Amino acid sequence: MTPAPTSLVLHGYRYSVYLRIARLALAEKGVAYERVEVNPFSPDVPAAYLALHPFGRVPTLVHDGFVLYETGAISRYVDRAFAGPALQPDAPRALARMDQIIGVVDSYGYWPLVRQVFSHRVFRPAVGQPTNESEVAHGLTGAARALAALEDLASSETFLVGPAPSLADLHLGAMIAYFTAAPEGAAMLDRYRRLAGWWDRLKMRPSMAATAPGLPVTEV
């Protein structure tokens, strides 16, 4: 792994898919960093963190005093600022497709995949909160629409936009990891041939294991 720069600190909430996307980019580039836990759902987000991110969301990257928030900006910066395998293709159309997939995932995939299906089927029960079956059902409907669109956009090559992983793979991968933790999510993904094959390949990458957040453990 590449030695850490003078100072590279990633602030974020362990269970956030957006923190994981940033962590995946750093892992794929082989960059060492310090991680600081910040829970954006806490009623008392530290003032020191709000000084870095005025909206109190996560993640935020601080590189030698340079403060950067918004996951897309962070992941692209990591790719440009550090040595290691490129995470963005050179070809204009492949790059445009990468950006398009990221946009689709953010706009149409995150809420049903993560906040509805994963949250209500997996995360909330893990922390002792009730599941809303209506949310799961609506999430599965939205997930099917998003996955169908992504199936059409996915390359027939090894990864989403070509033979090597890109930021699109990391973006979608963090969310699919959560979605397929729900039995209904895993069953649904199998209906999409390209995405199912892609996920079988992506989930075996060392970066996926290194950034797996696990689930909270509730004491009985």
Overall description:
With 220 residues, the protein is of the alpha+beta class. It has 9 helices and 4 strands, in the order E-H-E-H-E-E-H-H-H-H-H-H-H. The chain has helices at residues 17-29, 47-50, 71-81, 92-126, 133-153, 167-179, 183-189, 193-202, 206-210; strands at 8-12, 34-37, 60-63, 66-69. The chain has a 4-stranded mixed β-sheet, covered by helices on one side. Helix 1 runs parallel beside helix 3 (71-81), helix 4 (92-126) runs antiparallel to helix 5 and helix 5 packs parallel to helix 7 (183-189). It starts with 7 loop residues before the first strand and ends in a 10-residue tail after the last helix. The mean pLDDT is 96.
Largest sheet composition: 4 strands, mixed
Tell me the fraction of residues in β-strands, as a range.
5-15%
Query: What is the H-and-E element order?
Result: EHEHEEHHHHHHH
Assign a percent range to the helix content.
Answer: 40-55%
**Structural domains: how many:** 2
Can you list the strand order of the major beta sheet? Answer: 2-1-3-4
CATH architectural arrangement of the largest domain: Up-down Bundle
Our Rg estimate from Cα atoms comes to 17 Å
Number of strands: 4
The parts where pLDDT drops under 50 for at least 5 residues are none
Distance between the termini: 39 Å
The CATH class label of the largest domain is Mainly Alpha
The average pLDDT is: 96
CATH topology title of the largest domain: Glutathione S-transferase Yfyf (Class Pi), Chain A, domain 2
Shape: globular
- Please count the helical segments: 9
**Structural class, from secondary structure content?**
alpha+beta
